[in-house]
Amino acid sequence: MSVIAELRIPATAFELGRTLDVRSGTALELESVVPLGDSAVPFVWMYRVDDRTGAAERGSAVSRDDDCLEPVDVYDDRALYAVEWNLDTDDVFSAVRAEEGHVLRATAVPDRWTFKFRFPDHESLSAFRRHCRSERIPLEVLRVRSPETPGRPRFGLTDRQRETLSLAVQRGYYAIPRQCTTIELAETLGISDQAVTERLRRAIVALVEDTLGADERDGWRD
């Protein structure tokens, strides 16, 4: 049975983290990795976060040798860069590949990266962690789960949370302007207004943690 692991790794502990200089006020997201022989080209999104408002705006990517990288695509709030680096000399990515793992998501803020990996089984994950220990790569395990566990709530939601959240969306609770109130939702569900509010809050937290992962809880900000 496959296993999904969310891990945090210092930027200085692996090749790609050392290659890219994620500076203060900047966040990065790995989009994909294109293998080209012994090397690989990762595509990364770079954002700059306004410390006063938390709003994202376009950031510039700089390698640690201070070479400015040319963007592939530029949008109002982000820019896409291609970064060439040798996959075989990156201990983290080569270990993931050796254990037939896949990178589901990778984000970075200054000094650290957060990864979501999928491995074929727990033995493969354990082998990956042993490799990192042998290479003195510090790992912080944030979460490990088996997505196919029978009976596990889909997207982390209980049936009641799913019902309440779906009803809120259908009735326009999250629309602008708002088209219904928690009191109206409570009347339909036969519960109190306070119970609706708490159920929606727990549902949103569960949904974000299950689909976006620990990097969102970490806030993408220092």
Automatic annotation (TrEMBL):
Pfam families: BAT (PF15915), HTH_10 (PF04967). The keyword Transcription regulation applies. Signal peptide: none annotated. Residues 7-152 form the Bacterioopsin transcriptional activator GAF and HTH associated domain. It comes from the Archaea. The keyword ATP-binding does not apply. Residues 157-208 form the HTH bat-type domain. Keywords: Transcription, Transcription regulation. InterPro entries: BAT_GAF/HTH-assoc, HTH_bacterioopsin, RNA_pol_sigma_r3/r4-like, WH-like_DNA-bd_sf. This is Helix-turn-helix domain-containing protein. It comes from Halomarina ordinaria.
